[in-house]
Amino acid sequence: MRFKNSLSGEIEEFRPLRGRRVNMYVCGPTVQESFHIGHARTYIIFDSIAKYLVSSGYSLFYLQNITDIDDKIIKKANETDSSALSVAEKYTMEYLSLMNSLRVDSINLYAKATEYIEEIISQISRLMENGHAYSAGDGVYFNVRSFKDYGRLSNQRSEDLVSGTRVSENTNKADQKDFALWKLQKPGEPAWDSPWGKGRPGWHIEDTAITETYFGQEYDIHGGGSDLIFPHHEAEIAQMRSISGKEYLARYWIHTGMVTLNGEKMSKSLGNFITISELLKRYNPREVRFAMLNGNYRSTIDFSESLMEEARKNTHYLDIIYRRLKNHNSAYGDLEIDVTPFRDGIKEAMDGDFNFRLAFRIIMDLAGKAYHDFPDLSKASVDEISSVFEWFNSFTGVLVHIENSGVLKEAVDLILDLRRRLREEKNYALSDLIRGRLMEAGIEVQDNGKQVEWWIRD
After folding, report:
1. What is the pTM for the complete model shown?
2. CATH of region 2-256, choose from 3.40.50.620, 2.40.240.50, 3.40.50.300, 3.40.50.720
3. Angle (nearest 5°) at CA 50 between 46 and 315
């Protein structure tokens, strides 16, 4: 398996630190508002990468943080006359619900920042002891000049770097490139006790405190959106390496591309901000997954209705083929299809820098062949094609097969038999009315020559 390591900028062979055991950390959300489709893309991609690693025989521990204390959360609480805790809890629950809807279920542990204050304080103390951090009038800061490799991940020279904080520059810092590790409490803000006074953690320190707790000081894969490379991921590297003295925080870095709308970065102020909840009112989760995966995961994609309609058309086509294979109940032919080239092609695409777009193209080719040759396929070929679909779906999550219950099957088959007789009598108006009412009830009806197929829509 090979993929692009953002740290080196090269496509590298993946060699985990401990055989087939893999530790992967992906930066989770800051829970201060509803989540947009850019979030959906990042977390769907890493969910599929995680599932592909597992399908490839790796034992994976996938860890993700949730930033539940931050300047933005406090600002939202003030604007809505509520507490930071209630804001964070509200949007954490929304986030987890959305991930469940999107079939993002590969994360082994969600770690909230506020549950690791002790570990955060420990890291800051060690950074101060070895001269990499200092106390100032409004908190504790990391001394960027003390870490010579700062800027390596983002490929920037030290003199070109900008401030690494989420707030405006201030005179408490020794250098404006320094970033906050601990922020002293301001009136009305939530706070925890520390050796430097009551306060709360800076943005970056929670991540390394959490990963050190579960993975130690060095691990395999760190992921996130490309917008986090600087300053967030640079800061993480500086913190952990300054504590450990090791050459790496994570051996491999994977970054996903952004989602734009009309060629611009999504922004509420520009009126081009689409939430995941809004998107799921118009498209089902599998269509969203298809749209977010069907491309180069590192490239920016421009969201559009045409993008989503293409995803809808393709998932519908795959559904028809997959259900036909799974519900095959007619006489089999004797045509043998060798699925090995298709399976190997998908594996080669995924092993070659997670080329989802090529993998999707190959499964569509296999679907086309199955559709064309379906009446002549042998039982072995039907089973083998089905197994490729199921393996593909195990890491993409774009297919669904709902078994039809016995009682429901008898009832629907009876209605469709009546519809068939009406069509034979050329009473198309009434037969179309029956089909329409079945569709309203959530039952898809597909006429395929003399055969009629039906299934429950998800």
Report:
1. 0.88
2. 3.40.50.620
3. 70
